[in-house]
Write a structure and sequence with these properties.
Largest sheet: 2 strands, antiparallel
Order of helices and strands: HEEHHHHHHHHHHHH
Oligomer: single chain
Structural class: mainly alpha
Number of helices: 13
Length: 332
């Protein structure tokens, strides 16, 4: 409506003008919401395949594992009987179960500090070399053992630890040291598996520490050197505190991988030929006992209860480490 001289302004005209001004803004808001909804639907659509894999192959089996741990369940029988906590009581009364837990604790307690110290030491030694043109070669050489098949490399390590003509005893005798039984010895079987595990996984942790070292400002180190600080003091006062988030991540990852160690132990101590976890259960960890209970002895309910206990142990250790990290880890 045109407004001229002498035209009287009515409230209805004001409402019409306000409506005409608000309408385009409202349409823009609707279009923006529609565009946002389309983007969200597209994002969820792209995530759907990955989410489906997690749901089908992880969450559903995990929920079903929790279910059958309270039942007497067999893979060849459709009948299930609710037994409550009987499976857990049976496990706690088995000496082999407690022995597997002790072995897992021993394996984890040794592997975590060995992994952190060796990986950090190698990363510090290679830090200068990684800055040049040879950095790509070093990264590939360090990471190569981690991407090799675990079973294939474990078979190679079986030959290395052969007590009669293996390379390990050849090196020991060359240094005038006594030869060892390695995988045939109750004392040295688990350390032999640890050596294989360290060799196979160390490259990953070295690269993680190298990434952490690359994020440390060089200016701080240069200033400390100009002030006359020695290398060890620079490490303890600057590098180590700034590496605490990386160290915490390596510790958590190493803890989970150590508690779930299976492939190396299964392959090096018997595998499909029987006797895995030997000799005399010296290398029987909790994860290996879960597999043997389920697929060798066909006690799936006991194996499910054992898996639930293993999950609770790893969860508890992770929460403890998180609690410690909140007080020790330094985030810039």
């Amino acid at each position: 409506m045109s407004i001229g001289v002498g035209t009287r302004w009515e409230p209805a005209d004001e409402e019409a003008l306000e409506a005409s001004l608000i309408a385009p803004t409202a349409r823009l808001g609707v279009r923006k919401r529609i565009r946002t909804l389309k983007n969200k639907l597209m994002g969820y659509g792209l995530m759907f395949p990955a989410i489906s894999v997690f749901v089908v192959f992880f969450y559903v089996p995990a929920i079903y594992l929790l279910y059958i741990s309270f039942f007497h369940w067999g893979i060849l029988s459709s009948a299930t009987n609710f037994v409550g906590l009987k499976n857990f009581k049976t496990l706690f009364s088995q000496p082999l179960f407690w022995h597997s837990l002790v072995t897992s604790v021993y394996y984890t307690v040794v592997m975590i500090p060995a992994t952190v110290l060796l990986a950090l030491g190698i990363a510090m030694l290679l830090r200068a070399g990684m800055e040049g043109k040879r950095g790509g070669f070093f990264r590939g050489a360090i990471f190569l053992p981690h991407v090799t098949p675990v079973v294939a490399t474990s078979i190679v390590w079986v030959w290395i630890f052969n007590p009669r003509f293996g390379l390990a005893n050849f090196l020991l005798t060359s240094l005038h040291l006594p030869a060892l039984g390695w995988l045939e010895s109750q004392t040295w079987a688990l350390p032999a598996v640890m050596i294989d595990s360290l060799w196979h996984s160390l490259g990953l942790y070295v690269l993680i520490f190298l990434a952490g070292l690359a994020n440390i400002p060089k200016d701080l180190i240069e200033v400390a050197r100009l002030d006359g600080a020695k290398r060890h003091r620079i490490f303890y006062r600057i590098i180590w505190p700034l590496l605490s988030p990386t160290t915490f991540f390596v510790v958590v990852l190493s803890t989970v991988n150590s508690w779930q160690a299976f492939s190396q132990i299964y392959t090096m101590t018997g595998g499909p030929h029987g006797g895995a976890g030997g000799p005399a259960f010296a290398t029987t960890t909790d994860s290996l006992l879960v597999y043997q209970t389920a697929f060798t002895y066909l006690h799936f309910s006991l194996a499910s209860a054992m898996s639930l206990i293993l999950f609770l142990i790893i969860l508890t250790l992770t929460l403890i480490q998180k609690w410690i990290s909140d007080r020790v880890v330094f985030y810039r």
